[in-house]
From TrEMBL:
Domain FAD-binding PCMH-type: 71-245
UniProt keyword annotations, A-Z: Cell wall, Disulfide bond, FAD, Flavoprotein, Glycoprotein, Nucleotide-binding, Oxidoreductase, Secreted, Signal
PANTHER family in alphabetical order: OS08G0158400 PROTEIN (PTHR32448)
Record's signal peptide: 1-20
Cofactors: FAD
Chief place of localization: secreted
Keyword Cell inner membrane attributed: no
PROSITE patterns on file: FAD_PCMH (PS51387)
Subcellular localization(s) per the UniProt record: Secreted, Cell wall
Family membership noted in the UniProt record: Belongs to the oxygen-dependent FAD-linked oxidoreductase family.
A Pfam cross-reference name: FAD_binding_4
Name of protein: FAD-binding PCMH-type domain-containing protein
Upper lineage: Eukaryota, Viridiplantae, Streptophyta, Embryophyta, Tracheophyta
Length: 528
């Protein structure tokens, strides 16, 4: 007994207290141990900060360099799963060892929320989930979340010239985040959003259950089609319906600057663009350019279009509906639909293999905001807007103004969570970019002033915004702890309008403990 009391028990207590302290002080080590117990050779898919590949794996898909500075919080580990069971294990171990999980597909989140967090976190990077299987007979494709839109477009085009998919313009955006938030692109007026074409999905929820459309039920299936990523679970793959495209399409660009009546033509465009035939998508890109007077700058409105048909049909159509544009044959080029994606991405249209290059675009720091405009702006309003591009901090600023109408008008606001449909003339995506970190303040201030200027023209009762271009200025969840419905409504209603309430209800059902969360994820009603 004495032996037990004086030798064994103290010894045991020391061991227990040391391992207890370890538990308390080394959640990192326990997280890794947890992964290694559940995944064979887990070290081959896990990158912790002392791993030589950690920086390259982390930076591989950071598309906003605003969030890759030395002071940006870094994940404890990045896990690049190869199997569904790896995803289940990562969820289990993060949950049990107190790490927040950030899911990353293409890494284009404009607020960096797929790879930055203010609390201890790990990244689940779906870079190895990038299969694209196209079934031309049934006009569908299964695409994994870590594939890019470019890989999907390429996968379709390498099998058929008569099918396409209506998703975003930039070919490096990830399917996972893009489809989770909507996905508008050059086929949008003809067919609607990428998310309107999802017909099945495979996801893993917070309890590690693998769900498909049938097993998840129609509520959850509704929510993941535009209700935002990193809220309901990890979507591993999507089954999408492809859409018909002609073998030859026509693209055009007409540039007009302030000295060439850009303001007047833009004013006219707003009255016409949403009423044009669904086969014709047009957009206006506004940016600062060199003027013809040496050393001076001007502002250019670049009128761009995609017509699902040939030049000979397009020219008379525009000459009748929008003669002010002065569209001429030399402004137009015929090409395949898949080449038109590259054209809108301001890239060479050949070889189309560029679509497979995830590094084809320069990476800068950026801040974005969005608006949905229902009433045409006055000519003086447009002039004021364009003149703001002559201010400081606008060297890499662009506003992409994209016509709505067509199919977008026909889809009900509550069909999927993305609610911005009937009656919208155009979506404005304001982007300001910079190269040197010290310009960040100047550029972001300019963006906020531009947004404030546009408040007179944006939807009056509720200033709506597009979730796929997150804007944390609109409000955020509390970093640690409970966020009330009222608090989240401030930004939630802007993104989702009346669909926000249903999203909260579904979130409460599927993830009541709020395991999947980020600054603007949907909060459950009674999160801890
Ligand atoms: P990322 O990997 O950063 O994920 C974005 C969000 O979704 C994060 O919250 C993330 O956690 C979550 N998420 C990612 N994968 C998930 C998964 N598998 N399961 C659950 N959650 C997941 N939009 C548009 O509609 N049309 C366009 O033309 C463009 N063009 C464009 C160009 C550029 C240069 C940028 C930076 C952005 C766009 N966008 C856009 C916006 C784009 O659609 C949006 O940023 C997408 O969320 C990007 O998806 P990623 O997978 O690349 O991002």
């Amino acid at each position: 007994m004495k032996f037990l009391q004086f030798f064994v028990l103290p010894f045991l207590m020391v061991i227990l207290s040391v391992s207890g302290a370890n538990l308390a002080r080394h959640p990192h080590r326990d997280f890794l141990r947890c992964l290694s117990l559940r995944i064979a050779n887990s070290s081959t898919i896990t990158y912790v900060h002392n791993n030589p590949s950690y920086p390259s794996v982390l930076n591989a898909s950071i598309h906003n360099t605003r969030f890759s500075t030395p002071t940006t919080p870094k994940p404890y580990a990045i896990i690049t799963p190869r199997k569904t069971s790896h995803v289940q294990s990562t969820i289990y171990c993060s949950k049990n060892h107190g790490f927040q999980l950030r899911i990353r597909s293409g890494g284009h989140d404009v607020e960096g929320v797929s790879y930055v967090s203010q609390v201890p976190f790990v990244i689940l990077d779906l870079v190895n989930f990038r299969d694209v299987k196209v079934d031309t007979k049934n006009e569908v494709a299964w695409v994994q979340s870590g594939a890019t839109t470019g890989e999907l477009y390429y996968g379709i085009a390498s099998k058929t010239q008569t099918l396409g998919f209506p998703a975003g313009i930039c070919h490096t955006i990830g399917i996972g985040g893009h489809l989770s938030g909507g996905g508008f692109g050059i086929l949008g007026r003809k067919y609607g959003l990428a998310a309107d074409h999802i017909i099945d999905a495979k996801m893993v929820d917070a309890n590690g259950r693998v769900l498909h459309r049938k097993s998840m039920g129609e509520d959850l299936f509704w929510a993941i089609r535009g209700g935002g990523g990193n809220t309901f679970g990890v979507v591993l793959a999507w089954k999408v319906k492809l859409v018909p495209v002609p073998t030859v399409v026509t693209v055009f660009t007409v540039n007009k600057n302030l000295e060439q009546n850009a303001t007047k033509i833009f004013h006219r465009w707003q009255h016409i663009a949403h009423k044009l035939p669904n086969e014709l998508f047009t957009a206006v890109w506004v940016m600062k350019v060199n003027s013809s007077q040496v050393g001076k700058k001007t502002v250019q409105a670049s009128f761009k279009g995609l017509f699902l048909g040939r030049i000979d049909e397009l020219i008379p159509l525009i000459q009748y509906a929008f003669p002010e544009l002065g569209l001429a044959r030399e402004n137009c080029t015929q090409m395949s639909w898949v080449q038109s994606v590259l054209y809108f991405g301001a890239l060479p249209t050949e070889p189309v293999e560029i679509l497979l290059n995830r590094n084809a675009l320069p990476r800068l720091s950026l801040k974005a905001k969005t608006d949905y405009i229902r009433e045409p702006m006055s000519e003086t309003g447009i002039e004021g807007f364009m003149n703001m591009f002559l201010e400081e901090g606008t060297d890499f600023a662009i506003t992409m103004i994209e016509a709505f109408g067509g199919k977008m008008d026909e889809i009900r606001e509550n069909e999927i969570p993305f609610p911005h449909r009937s009656g919208i003339l155009f979506e404005s995506v304001y982007i300001v970019q910079w190269i040197n970190e010290e310009d960040a303040g100047l550029c972001i201030n300019w963006m906020r002033r531009l947004y404030s200027y546009m408040s007179s023209y944006a939807s009056k009762s509720l200033r709506a915004a597009y979730y796929n271009y997150k804007d944390l200025d609109l409000g955020t969840n509390n970093i640690n702890g409970y966020t009330s419905y009222e608090q989240a409504s401030v930004w939630g209603l802007k993104y989702f309008k009346n669909n926000f309430k249903r999203l909260v209800r579904i979130k409460t059902m599927i993830d009541p403990m709020n395991f999947f969360s980020n600054e603007q994820s949907i909060p459950p009603l009674l999160s801890p």
